[in-house]
Structure to design on (290 residues):
């Protein structure tokens, strides 16, 4: 299978399972509490590892026990550490407090970070041509722009995907540099787009050669191949909604897997919706691809 590098953050997630989303200034007892390793790119790599790919993560870890814990969890998931990884003394691990409301299946995330981001100088310790694919989170656009350009300048650059989850200043500069752009509904709405085709028109002007994909929650997902046309796949909800946390990362991983397997984009889109739906019917990722 393929060699994949993911560039992003890895977090400590404290996941509280609640009967329902709490009202402000109230008290509620959690039904369950789990501590897990999170982070969008790290989650994507975990799913790709389950699908048989050889995965490595590039990011920053605190030089303390929490950093060791995150590293151990990555390795347990079949994810190696890239030479680009940097450990920072005195930094604190990114932490997410996640509330899962069982009544509706919602997940609400409060994130705290006091840890530097990976930079171009860090990534240049890697050998991009050793990979078949590199996936970037759309973070710190100025630094990520330099990293994408550097990879593009390699003699035989790997395929590149970019997750565009949040609207960050200058993020549109990154769009022409990726082969596969993975947009979230939250990003589209933040940009004022109420319909998928509005996002597609905006993105196509900025990335004429990329495949565009937009996940729209329970309404399904759209894709616009670089060669033209519009594709749609319906959502695939599970019989019982259990846990939506990480479903977007599963969706994105399935798209990257489809690209690496040489599948047509319409098949990859349908497969991504099915796998994301399966994820919503179970806790975590284990057994997801069996």
């Amino acid at each position: 299978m393929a060699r994949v590098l993911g560039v992003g953050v890895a977090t400590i997630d404290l996941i509280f399972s609640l009967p329902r989303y709490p009202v402000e200034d109230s008290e509620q007892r959690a039904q369950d509490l789990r501590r897990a390793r999170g982070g969008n790119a790290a989650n994507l790599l975990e799913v790709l590892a389950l699908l048989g790919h050889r995965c490595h993560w590039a990011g920053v870890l605190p030089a303390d026990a929490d950093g060791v814990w995150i590293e151990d969890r990555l390795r347990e998931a079949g994810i190696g550490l890239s030479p680009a990884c940097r450990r920072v003394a005195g930094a604190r691990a990114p932490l997410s407090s996640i509330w899962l409301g069982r009544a509706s299946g919602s997940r609400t995330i409060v994130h705290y970070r006091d840890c530097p981001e990976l930079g171009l100088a860090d990534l240049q310790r890697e050998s991009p041509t050793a990979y078949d694919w590199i996936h970037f989170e759309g973070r710190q656009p100025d630094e990520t722009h330099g990293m994408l350009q550097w990879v593009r300048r390699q003699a035989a650059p790997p395929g590149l995907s970019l997750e565009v989850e949040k609207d960050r200043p200058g993020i549109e500069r990154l769009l022409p540099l990726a082969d596969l752009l993975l947009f979230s509904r939250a990003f589209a709405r933040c940009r004022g787009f109420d319909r998928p085709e509005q996002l597609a028109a905006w993105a196509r002007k900025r990335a004429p050669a990329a495949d565009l994909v937009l996940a729209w929650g329970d309404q399904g997902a759209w894709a616009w191949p670089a060669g033209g046309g519009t594709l749609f796949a319906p959502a695939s909800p599970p019989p019982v909604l259990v846990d939506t946390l990480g479903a977007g990362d599963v969706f994105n991983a399935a798209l990257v897997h489809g690209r690496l397997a040489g599948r047509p984009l319409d098949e990859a889109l349908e497969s991504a919706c099915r796998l994301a739906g399966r994820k919503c019917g179970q806790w975590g990722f284990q057994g997801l691809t069996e």
